[in-house]
């Protein structure tokens, strides 16, 4: 379905859901695009536990919508941009499904949760297997029927936290390659499972250049990326590429597509404004940081005093905090990804 017919569908569904007679049935009559999301903080739109997660604290959400909404950014995240590309509202966070009107479920559901991975990580949120279990329950409970899923798309974005947990637990990194294999094998099983539940198109992100996140780049005053971490990203992405090719080879249609966050981040770092100047002067430098090592963006002390600083113009920082892009960063990444998003529709 192209963007225009989606837009028409949207108009129709607005009209029909306003009409009492059509209530409840409209969702099944029309097969709109739906987006189902599995992953971590890069795509989470509100599943992380409130209030423990920084994503529910000020100043998260300060740019959009003006208060914290569980997004790990000053505003929108990747999910929101991919939904807008599909011409739909951002899918509702799984944790909020019972708090909203049923009509809000028509754009799909977001199961992603900050801090999680393919395997269990240092965070105790639902791993990818559990996120897919939640999705399966929704299908079994007929919140979404098979024919309902007919024009749906899944977005899968994670694995960074798996590596974070691995490196935190292992002094010796010689087992890293074996670990990458086990992540990719489990990921392949998970992708097939999502397809088996009836989702015909599945986009999986190649991992970002982890060495360019402000956290590892801090040791060079945000000047240089950590090459060790970038090698981990590259190796992961090579294996992912091979595996996705294999998965597509086995199915008649191309079900799986890679969204290359790695090259998108690198191009986005060099984004230019209309006058041809670099948009992000110091791309690895985050906007919001703790005042010292004991604090991070969003920290307050016992008296409630802020223990972080924010840059004046978040839109000029690629990164919002030490791990996550700002809304401006995600917008720049999205503009690089647009051409590869075409293949999903
Ligand atoms: C995911 O989490 C569940 C529930 O905690 C656990 O039983 C399972 O082993 C985990 N799966 C993987 C692949 O780590
Ligand atoms: C959706 O369902 C219709 C009718 O059942 C079928 O013709 C069409 O091929 C399906 N589309 C996809 C993407 O599976
Ligand atoms: C960054 O990398 C360059 C080139 O390798 C090097 O000359 C420079 O000293 C590094 N900067 C810092 C702050 O580490």
UniProtKB/TrEMBL annotation:
Gene3D superfamilies membership: SGNH hydrolase
GO BP annotation list: lipid catabolic process
GO molecular function term, any single one: hydrolase activity, acting on ester bonds
Origin: domain of life: Eukaryota
A Pfam family annotated for this UniProt entry: Lipase_GDSL
Signal peptide span: 1-21
Keywords, sorted A to Z: Hydrolase, Lipid degradation, Lipid metabolism, Signal
Family that this chain belongs to: Belongs to the 'GDSL' lipolytic enzyme family.
Designated name of the protein: GDSL esterase/lipase
Organism: Quercus lobata (Valley oak)
Encoding gene (name): LOC115983200
